[in-house]
Amino acid sequence: MPTSGIAFRASATPAAQLALSELTARHGQTPLGRATVVVALGGDGFMLQTLHDTQSAGLPVYGMNCGTVGFLMNGFEADGLAERLALAEETVINPLHMRATTAGGRVVEALAINEVSMLRAGPQAAKLAIYVDGKLRLEELVCDGALLCTPAGSTAYNYSAHGPILPIGSDVLALTAVAAFRPRRWRGALLPKTAVVRIEVRDAEKRPVMADADGRSVRDVISVEIRSDPTICHRVLFDPGHGLEERLLVEQFA
């Protein structure tokens, strides 16, 4: 990986700002248009933001953890950055494309690297109908919500909702219920990466639902269509032996 021309990005936290000052003093700050690599300083949320913000540049992004969890990040160390970048291994992630329609007829499109989720926005459980490739697969899911995640996002909200961890190289998506009430025993589904998932809200006026794609929220949705977008490739860099595939395995044996 070329190490000349680093574009640093940092979250607003004191730790990330301190790291930014130290690293730019050593390596300089290259404008995004002339950079060969982006270094993101922060936590997982900031890493997702950086991947979205720099998507059009097509540059690899190397994250250094200045936050809490840092699943998508490498450990922070001020020394040896050029050497680490030179040895870094690249993982390519395709995001999900969300097309949400609201009760008022507004259509909102957004991309999600981790997951697209639909969550109840009122005191009553949501009632959702799930279609896969145009075929009704679940007529009524009574729940707090449902989500569709990528392998990269399978250890995030999906894992907290008791969904499966997906190997990073697998061409599958995980569809997971959030606190399912009926069917009580429904544990979700593994779908091919090419699947188009449509989730429709039943009784939306009485049981409002919101949709979320990596933090971009849409209220009062009546339907959401989700599909993987193979035309967009996020290039994420990891230190050797600490890539997403290894981290996913570690999580399953923790």
Quaternary structure of the protein: single chain
Proportion of strand residues: 35-45%
How are the strands of the largest sheet arranged?
Answer: 6-5-16-13-8-9
Radius of gyration: 19 Å
Helix run count: 5
Q: Cα distance, first to last residue?
A: 32 Å
Low-confidence stretches: none
Helix share bin: 10-25%
The largest sheet, given as strand count, sense and whether it forms a barrel, is:
6 strands, antiparallel
Mean pLDDT: 93
Number of strands: 17
The H-and-E topology, N to C, reads as EHEHEHEEEEEEEHEEEEEEEH
The rough form would be described as elongated
The secondary structure category is alpha+beta
Question: Can you walk me through this structure?
Answer:
The structure is a single chain. Strand 1, helix 1 (14-27) and strand 2 (37-42) form a beta-alpha-beta unit. With 254 residues, this protein is of the alpha+beta class. It has helices at residues 14-27, 44-53, 81-87, 157-160, 244-252; strands at residues 6-10, 37-42, 61-65, 89-93, 96-102, 107-112, 115-120, 126-132, 135-143, 145-149, 172-178, 189-192, 196-202, 209-213, 216-218, 221-228, 234-238.
List strands and helices in order, with pairings.
Blueprint: E1 6-10, H1 14-27, E2 37-42, H2 44-53, E3 61-65, H3 81-87, E4 89-93, E5 96-102, E6 107-112, E7 115-120, E8 126-132, E9 135-143, E10 145-149, H4 157-160, E11 172-178, E12 189-192, E13 196-202, E14 209-213, E15 216-218, E16 221-228, E17 234-238, H5 244-252
Parallel strand pairs: 1-2, 2-3, 3-17
Antiparallel strand pairs: 4-17, 5-6, 5-16, 7-10, 7-14, 8-9, 8-13, 10-11, 11-12, 13-16, 14-15
